[in-house]
Amino acid sequence: MPVYKAPLRDMNFLLNDVFEYPKHYESLKSGENATPDIVDAILTECGRFCEEVLSPLYQSGDEEGCKLENGEVTTPKGYKEAYDQYVMGGWQGLSAPEDFGGQGLPASMGLLKQEMMGTANWSFSMYPGLSMGAMNTIYLHGSEEQKATYLGPLTEGRWGGTMCLTEPQCGTDLGQVKTKAEPQADGSYKLTGTKIFISSGDHDLTENIVHIVLARLPDAPKGTRGISLFIVPKFLPDGNGSVGERNGVNCGSLEKKMGIKASATCVMNFDGATGFLIGPENEGLECMFTFMNTARIGTAIQGVGPAELSYQWALDYAKERRSMRALSGKKEPEQVADSLIHHADVRRMLLTQKAIAEGGRAMLYYAARLADHMVEGHAEGDTKKAEKYDDKLGFLTPILKGFLTELGNEAANLGVQVFGGHGYIREHGMEQIVRDTRIATLYEGTTGIQALDLLGRKVLLMTQGGAVREFTLKVANFARKHLANKRTRPFAVELLKLTAQWNLLTVRVMLAARKDRDVVSSAAYDFLMYSGYVTMAYMWARQAAVAADRLDNGGDESEAFYNAKIATAEFYYERLLPRAQTHATSMLSPTSNLMQLDADDMAFTG
């Protein structure tokens, strides 16, 4: 059975060398205890937990799946014991406020933990991952009484959390939400309705589950302006930090899914369930975006994770499996055939996986620094600071979620391809990675929705192109500083061209959209993917610049590591980055080639 190895060397390179996290943490109040020694110890221990506890449950959990009996969901064998170890280790409260029992470390530490857990066993990581979103929502929008009631048990990991948005008649279009919330004399509400696709909706890992639910008050306006947000616990709190009577919320069925079968995806029925309003009436969607943005960043990990895992397993296989001779001559003459690693096409697939995993990880860590500042702004009550970094992160969030999950799917499929026929067989685990990864482009908003959010809201509507101008200025300033070094000059020159092109494309799409509003929809996907490839190019240039500096100035003994970084950056620029130009061409294509056929004309008529 293949195993996961935490990529600590690459993580530390990004943290310490590329993004200078030690200095970053020194600038944060929450970073006081995030010293290099402490961070290294946390990452090492988390890596051990993922390798020894979570990774061995990855395939067995998929084989067994979750079960629903007598209205209660049970997780696969070993999950409860693993979760208990997770709680005992204090992992849930790593980045939670100390006031509620957390360790008060920066928010980025939670993302680093989540990356390793998600790569080792994505299904398992979803249970505590959903709880983090619930914690953030209650922390930012809950009353003092709600915080006192729920944040302690959630931080401890004794209680879990979910987000309940989707209903049978609506997914992304939340204006169609029908779940009703009837006010009660005691200030609570009775919620009635059905939610579907609810991850961690029910399970046996925690003693209580706190559902964050979108519902509509009786006199609410129609559409998204009339949605409120509620806390609906599985068991009503008894006032002493423990669970009381059973609430009227139940799992009606488990979804039969393509992948992540060890993660309980539930149909949840609210039958007059007692709920408590969180945030202002009819502003539930605004409050829920706290949860959704958290989830979207987390989902971006499911682009990086499968690329890393599939690459690790495919690389090992390519070194061991022998087939034919290399076209340039025998590489292992004493063997019956050469290892797959010696074939150029296999190298192409492996390097694509490596470039996606390591480039995507850099994108995540870049965004995590912004998240630290945003969270600190909220914690300090500094609205301007919070909004400033929320805007910066808001621009990157759809790119992270949409682009990285699309590439994660590509990397997972390449892993199957390296294995050949053996990749299609369940025992090797490669096809499971593909099945588990496929959902990542769908939940928390499909790639198309992320693209519309990026182009339609963040770029055109909210900033009139200003978000692109601000980000590309940062990229261009970096590039200009690295034109003189012969190792980094090719990357810098290409980045300068791309920043100019990105701004020009933005203006051209903006002008075209004034004449044809469908342009926003027809160009959005290609705009997102183009933005993703350029952003990843920036991240690879930053990694290459640090590697070049270390090689030129004798940083340490890791010469092979630094040379590999530069070589992978060259591969990305020469083999993968050219895809951006295809997207540039496609986004400027007229909508007429999409709209000229009537719906009936698109039907098969053979």
From TrEMBL:
Keyword tRNA-binding among record annotations: no
Function, as annotated: Involved in the assimilation of dimethylsulphoniopropionate (DMSP), an important compound in the fixation of carbon in marine phytoplankton, by mediating the conversion of 3-(methylthio)propanoyl-CoA (MMPA-CoA) to 3-(methylthio)acryloyl-CoA (MTA-CoA).
Stretches that traverse the bilayer: none
Location of the Acetyl-CoA dehydrogenase-like C-terminal domain: 481-598
Protein name (database record): 3-methylmercaptopropionyl-CoA dehydrogenase
Segments forming domain Acyl-CoA dehydrogenase/oxidase N-terminal: 41-157
Domain Acyl-CoA dehydrogenase/oxidase C-terminal: 282-453
Entry keyword set: FAD, Flavoprotein, Oxidoreductase
Iron as UniProt keyword: no
Residues annotated as domain Acyl-CoA oxidase/dehydrogenase middle: 163-271
Catalytic activity: 3-(methylsulfanyl)propanoyl-CoA + oxidized [electron-transfer flavoprotein] + H(+) = 3-(methylsulfanyl)acryloyl-CoA + reduced [electron-transfer flavoprotein]
GO molecular function, one term: oxidoreductase activity, acting on the CH-CH group of donors
